[in-house]
Specification:
Layout: H1 9-16, H2 35-51, H3 55-67, H4 69-89, H5 93-121, H6 124-148, H7 154-172, H8 179-184, H9 188-197, H10 204-217, H11 221-230, H12 232-250, H13 253-258, H14 260-266, H15 273-298, H16 300-327, H17 338-354, H18 357-364, H19 368-399, H20 402-422, H21 432-438
Helix pairs in contact: 2-5, 2-19, 3-4, 3-5, 3-19, 4-5, 4-7, 5-18, 5-19, 6-15, 11-12, 11-19, 12-18, 12-19, 12-20, 14-15, 15-16, 15-17, 16-17, 16-20, 19-20
């Protein structure tokens, strides 16, 4: 998933090199400061990754319980491979947009199914570890883009994720179906076989009981949607995960990544922006790799509190730097390394908790019949908010100064901190049924 969601500046660099026959009409104005980045990003990257990928989850919601989790994963992988083939053969923007559309729908679909699947196949004691490890794996894919794409042609930067997607598709044929899906379908023999393979034979009765409850009370997708809002526990779960995911996107992480090169250039940093992004990517991996080690002992809530605090302080400090730069204080020119250091701290803090835990909660807090629908609604809301934030950031950065945007991000992270302290429940060590009962 990380390799499927490249962070703009590498593909832009490769396309601008004009080494692969890609035809884009450009003017001198297009290449000035943020102008070209904003135009191509908003038309292709931002539009596809935040708007078009919303189609993926809605296609998934009714397929998960009728066709199964595994077929949906395979279908999404095929869609991703097809999309990257279009990107690899693209000679103009039309083919590029088709490829971006297909990969974005595949990305959105995979996001929902992964949370549903991992939440159902993992036992209670390792569920948090597996779901938080997704963040680390996402970061690994992103680092590949940061490290390779700026220095190779556009074609090569597409062939790499294409190869990863083909490998991913092959591996999917070897994974088991979700035991909860088999239980819902009344296939007890298959369910027991899967649980035996997963090392969870003692969980059979719990899964059968949960599946029986779902079968008795839910017979249609419409009823599932109604239950998402009518049942108190689902309604509260939806409120919590929507708010924390919106605050996650409001932290400014995607906007900062998309415009990282411009941030370093406008800050007067003498560090190459591509090198800086590789450093940041490695720090992201450092933060996300630590989380699975502590998530079951420390708890989701405590990690989220620490992460939100670090992000709040980091964004406030970066805003202060750009405020002093905006006002012309000469002291900033003696510390032009500060933006990189602050962003490193921000991304370590973000990927330690705020970038991972909201997604973990999304896979834990819904009942099986509404999990895909709750995840879909959550991702729709948060991605649309992320689209607005990422689109507005470039304009704000140039017109009113970067300090305003960074202080807004700091305020959003502070809201995430307070929301976590007073509202977000601890799910450590609880079964999915116990989490529902606590809500």
């Amino acid at each position: 998933m990380g390799a499927n969601s490249p962070k703009l500046h590498a593909p832009i660099h490769s396309l601008s090199a004009n080494s692969s026959g890609f035809q884009v009409e450009r003017t001198r104005e297009d290449w000035s400061s943020l102008t070209y980045v904003t135009r191509l990003f908003q038309r292709s990257k931002c539009l596809s990754d935040h708007t078009l990928l919303l189609k993926g989850p809605y296609v998934t919601t009714w397929l998960l319980n009728s066709k199964g989790r595994k077929p949906c994963l395979i279908g999404a992988a095929i869609l991703g491979v097809t999309g990257f083939i279009f990107l690899a053969i693209s000679k103009n923007l039309a083919i590029l947009y088709i490829g971006r559309f297909l990969t974005s729908v595949a990305f959105g679909t995979n996001t929902v199914i992964n949370f549903v699947y991992l939440g159902e196949v993992a036992s209670t004691n390792i569920r948090g570890v597996l779901m938080s490890a997704m963040g680390a794996m996402f970061t690994v894919g992103s680092i590949m883009v940061f490290s390779i794409a700026p220095y190779v042609s556009y074609r090569v930067s597409v062939y790499i994720p294409l190869a990863i997607n083909v490998f991913h598709l092959i591996v999917l044929f070897t994974i088991p179906e979700s035991p909860i899906f088999y239980a819902i379908q009344g296939k007890r023999k298959e369910m027991l076989a899967v649980l035996e393979d997963l090392g969870r034979p003692n969980d059979a009765e719990k899964i059968v009981s949960e599946a029986d409850d779902l079968t008795e009370t839910n017979t249609s997708t419409i009823k599932d949607w109604k239950e998402l809002f009518m049942v108190r526990s689902n309604r509260k779960a939806l409120f919590i995960v929507v708010i924390i995911n919106v605050l996650q996107h409001g932290s400014g992480v995607m906007a900062v990544l998309f415009f990282s090169a411009a941030i370093f250039n406008m800050a007067g940093s003498n560090i190459d922006s591509n090198v800086a992004m590789i450093i940041i990517g490695c720090c992201q991996l450092m933060g996300s790799a630590v989380t699975p080690l502590f998530i079951e002992s420390t708890g989701r809530k405590n990690i989220l509190i620490i992460s939100s605090s670090v992000c709040t302080i980091s964004m406030f400090t970066l805003g202060l730097y750009f405020y002093l730069l905006f006002k012309g204080f000469p002291v900033v020119y003696t510390v032009n390394w500060l933006p990189l250091v602050v962003l490193i701290l921000f991304f370590i803090g973000y990927d330690f908790g705020l970038g991972i835990i909201p997604n973990t909660l999304m896979g834990e807090m819904f009942t099986s019949n509404v999990r895909s629908k709750g995840s879909t609604l959550t991702l729709t809301t948060s991605w649309l908010f992320g689209f607005l934030v990422s689109t507005a950031f470039g304009a704000f950065f140039v017109t009113i100064g970067g300090h305003v945007a960074f202080w807004f991000f700091s305020g959003t992270c502070a809201c995430a901190l307070l929301f976590t302290i007073f509202v977000v429940p601890e799910t450590k060590g609880k079964t999915l049924l116990e989490i529902q009962q606590s809500l």
